[in-house]
Amino acid sequence: MDMLGMYPTFYVPGIGTAWVMGIIGVIHVVASHTSVGASFLFALLETRAWREKKPELLVFIKQYGMFLLVFSYIIGSITGPGIWYAITVASPRGVGGLIHNFVWVWASEWVYFTVEVIGVYALVYLLGKIDPKTHLKLTWSFALASWATMLLIVGILSFMMWPGNDRWYRTGSTSDAFFNVNFFAQLGTRTGAMFVMAALVGLLVASRLKDAALRRSVVRFLAPIGLLGGLFAVLMFLYYLRTLPSNAIVMLNTHLLPVYAKAMVAVFTVATLWLLFAWWRPQQVYTSLALAMFAFIAVFGVWPEERMRESMRKPYVAGQYIYGNQVIARDVPGKGIASEVDTIAAHGLLKLNPFVPAHLREVTDANELEAGKLLTKMACANCHSLEPGGPLRNLPAKLHYATDEDMIAAFLRGPLKYGTQPYMPRIDLPDDEVRAIAHYLAAVDRTRTANPPGGQQPLAAIQPVSMRK
Ligand code: HEC
Questions:
Q1: Which SUPFAM superfamilies match (predicted)?
Q2: Does this chain's domain 17-323 share its CATH topology with 340-451?
Q3: pTM of structure
């Protein structure tokens, strides 16, 4: 029997692998969107400085450019490869699928990114040293190259949600994958959001300007751009919602909006009020206030947005053909890929994954717990923390801390086997593997029942040690 082309399973205990990816991703999104947005602010501001003969505006560009060099470009360039490392170990087949579709897109992105990095150095260090018209051209080239990196990455990210039509599955062509249904919607949302991020960071930089008149004119320039960017992002986000597959809509309505809707409205309101206030009272844009506002909006705005995009894609990691747990979910004739769900149902994961240790290939009474743990990691841990209290939909809580193996097994033999939950993969396993998973999960739940977390402790546990027998 042939093994499947699986990779070793990587699991980060506690927070779960997906959260590692999420944390790196959010930092990256803040840094990268700020840089791309700022590149356009520079181009617009420099055009204005040139037209209205206000060379003092260039002081701000230099300061902001320097700030980006130190923060955004360093943080962005560390977290960018960080995302690669994290996703390669967390979701090797997801990454493999994307590389097989987009290798040249990534190569082009890398070229534009190189132009962008050279551009930001040239922009900062050549200011005032070359003739202004050439410098202005340089700044616009920097802006376009920056946006090109976003455009290319969004083609890949939006394909991860779904191609949106059947064509790609037949042709396997890069352009069918790239120009998928939610490409423009996502590109628009991110383009609007990048102006908001860049304006917020711009206010922070502007708050440090010594010249009050300059500070005022820069703040009055930034605030409306941030407001318009925000409005555009919201409109494009509403359009984006209309380009989603049905599993994403279910996930959104049942699990995400109830948790995140209020935070999103709050972030939008705070950002709008802050930008209006800045425009109204430019002299009161203090550094501490600007920093607090930026931090609030970056954390509470970007985290839910990225979390939602990742969650809505469930059960798939890419193109609605690779499940989060790395199993190929359907045939893709255009790429010569065949579904693996039924093969796994017939032979089981322990026999088909080449990285399973030899002593676990067969479930026995002696190794059932160990085999169950490995199986749960392979089949579930991409989307669920295994430990009670883990932040990523931890399985003990999802199972309501059930300790009854038959009940857990019934969930695996019913909803999971038949794929009735639109947001979970169809996981059909041979009976010995189902029992091993149930055995392991029940054991985890039992340890939790034995050591309950604070608040729900039985009386005996909260008595002072001296009172216990
Ligand atoms: C590709 C991602 C993915 C994988 C793999 C996955 N799940 Fe889930 N599971 C989800 C999502 C998404 C939810 C929705 C709950 C949420 O987001 O809070 C969920 C919910 C659940 C629930 C709660 C019931 C429900 O319908 O909301 C249980 C129980 C569960 N999963 C068990 C498992 C087990 C056991 C495995 C492995 C055999 C597994 N899941 C594998 C994504 C996944």
A1: Cytochrome c
A2: no
A3: 0.90
